[in-house]
Amino acid sequence: MARPPGRLRRCSVGRVRSLLIRVEIDTAQRAHKCQANSRHPIKKGDIRLNVRAGRGWDRYCMDCARKIVEGSLAALTLVSRAVETREAVSVGEDEATLIADGVKGIVAIDPTA
Asked: Does the residue 42 lie in any domain?
């Protein structure tokens, strides 16, 4: 059966989504300050973490990058456990920061679940 001209083919399978935004680790081409802590300089040639922020990039020193990755990993682990146990959970940027700082039990339960 032929499709009418001008109609787009639709796929019945949805696109797999990701909870991650684009991140890169690269070498700084010029000196600047870490966006998490302005007292942390990033010198030309230093390794840094780049995180996509809208149309631009946020750039972090490796000390701050370690904290960001640890917090994000802890938050994703919490979400992963909730998916496996079918529990309601809500984790945002603030909770991920607290988890990275070692504060336990920071979970917002969804009352509608």
From this structure: yes
Residue 107 lies in a domain: no
Q: Which residues are CB-contacts of 69 (< 8 A; sequence separation ≥ 6)?
A: 49
Q: What is the distance between the alpha carbons of residues 67 and 30, in angstroms, rounded to a whole number?
A: 23
In a domain, 40, yes or no: yes
Range of the domain at 44: 23-100
Contacts of 21 (CB under 8 A, 6+ apart): 51, 52
Positive or negative, the Cα torsion across 23, 70, 96, 40? negative
How does pLDDT run along the chain (113 residues), one tens digit per residue? 565 565 566 667 777 788 888 999 999 999 999 999 999 999 999 999 999 999 999 999 999 999 999 999 999 999 999 999 999 988 877 665 555 555 444 444 443 34
The answer to whether position 10 is within a domain reads no
